[in-house]
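ok so I'm stuck.
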Amino acid sequence: MAREENTPAVVAAVLDPVAVDQIVIVPLDLIDATDRLREVDEAYATVLAGAFAGRGGQRTPIEIVRRGDRFRLVFGAHRYRAAQIAQLPGIKAIITEADDAELRLREIDENLIRNELSALDRARFLAERKRLYEALNPETKHGANRFTRDANLATLSFGADIAEKTGLSERTVQRAVALAEALSPEVVKALQHTPLARNQAALEALSKHPAKRQEAAVAHLLAAENPAKSVNEAFDRIDGRAIRPADEKHLSKAIDLWGRMPAKDRRAFLGFLAEAELRKGCTVEVGQ
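replied:
not stuck anymore, here's the structure
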């Protein structure tokens, strides 16, 4: 019986060059899904696996590229992992053509466009994309535009290119790239799966320091016992500056305010305290 028009090609068609850009079913063990910039969220993949095993099945194909008689994943890592969890023999896929640099660019662009990245991951992805962009467009690596002598043409060209693709402003892109380049690799690794990965201000505060100080600060921030509550507090601990308890800080603020009060306000405040103490004394007597 003839195959229906919208039914994916059989597994044998996977090795047929005609299958490029068509939806086919590919055995999972023929696909290499390693060396990814972003780790798979197992919880999300498990939810997808349940959908795959249900009546809906897999609706959106993954994208892969040929590498000899096997394939490499371009994007769709969560769908690929879901198919593994659901123990499916194969997965719907579209075979495309791309070299390794183009492959990485497409992986990055898919994640950037989804707009669900943490501030840290966005910075990492944009920095890697800039590196690849310059490798693919070496003519843009040097020079300046007519508005500024110091501007790097590669950065400007890259910024314009990714801004058009993602809707991010060039300024946002430049800040993200600078952040990724300034953070220690050890810090990036340590913070990836923590709430700090989404805290742009904290990441930028860390990035202003040398790598060793960044790493020491992160150790205080992620300590199992009595972690630092902020980047500034972490650096205070490193530098031996005393951390005053909250009640001491409140007292210090009150003393400072008293020093700035005019005489009239001081007298009124003393009267308020005296009246409060009097009321307190009366309450105690009634209670006794």
